[in-house]
From TrEMBL:
GO cellular component: cytoplasm; endomembrane system; membrane
Organism of provenance: Metallosphaera hakonensis JCM 8857 = DSM 7519
Subcellular location: Endomembrane system
GO MF annotations, alphabetized: metalloendopeptidase activity
InterPro entries linked: MBTPS2, PDZ_sf, Peptidase_M50
Pfam families assigned to the protein according to its UniProt record, in alphabetical order: Peptidase_M50
GO aspect biological process, one term: membrane protein intracellular domain proteolysis
Protein name from the UniProt record: S2P metalloprotease
Alphabetical UniProt keywords: Hydrolase, Membrane, Metalloprotease, Protease, Transmembrane, Transmembrane helix
Amino acid sequence: MSATVNFFLGLIAFWAIVLALRNYLSKKGFTVYPLFLMWKRETRDQWLPRLANSKGFKIFEIASVILAIISMAGGVFLILSALSALLIPAKASSVKLEPIIPGVTVGLDQAPYILFSIGVSVLVHELMHAISSTSNKVPVKGGGVILLGFFPGAFVEPDENSFMSSTLSSKLKIVSAGIAINLILAGIFFPLAVYLPSLLSQGIYIDGVIPNSAAYNASIHGGYVLESVNGIRVTTPSQLKAILDNGTRYTLGLITPHGLETINVTSQSHFLGVYISYYYSPLVYPFLSFFLWMFIVNFSLALLNGAPLIITDGGKIFTEILKRFHVSENVSMAIQGLLVLLLIIAISMSFIPQ
């Protein structure tokens, strides 16, 4: 039985137990529905007041509104770009919206890093909402954590009456703070995810071999690690390509299940015929995976939560801005409803073979 099947059987068993304990959990303050678990409680009305009232945070709040509007534009652009294949059939879309589902759209081995990244990102997101509420004199009424399927989440609840009676500036700052911190985190983790792999790589991992290629004919198999070519150490694809382009006869230094081996390969096309990736120490891999998913999760949250999609922070910002120009909330909801429909179509398209 595959790991994916075991994972989903375990998930079904977990939710069956949760539903069986529904009455007990309800007495402990949990809200339980199929695939939905929430724990909520009243909380302090002010969060980190010293930070919230500092000059630095006030500057951050102003910048956060600008970043949120940029995220809103980016989110709308992302959705429309993903639909470009429908609008221009002759042109393949360079953007694809695909849900992150461990064991389905990404490897199950990535699940711990994905879930931890989501948990951290959402927690920081909601914390910024709470601090900004304090900064703008809006009490925080409550907060909690949720589990949707196997995705963790968190939330805070500013006092609704105080929030609705606040100025437009305060509303925008409170709502924008979460979007902005996700965009900032994406910016922090982007260079770590992009540049660290090549810097820390200790060789080139061979993921697979193309049949009838030079590597295939030399009995090279997936799982081998390429350490050197013609006596020159290689740790990145660009280094490998540069060496391959300079000749047709290669002496490959490989780490195999049997130890170190040297294999001679000839390729007139300068092409070995292998699928490759970076090779790291086992101690390094978890950190690099976490950095990668922190970028992906935060960038995705910033764009999609920043887009005006009814239930998103971007939707709240969009509605408040339109109100400022005396445009009714119904018009805002109609526009956002259209964007939600386009998003659903874009995601559905990701499962259609191109």
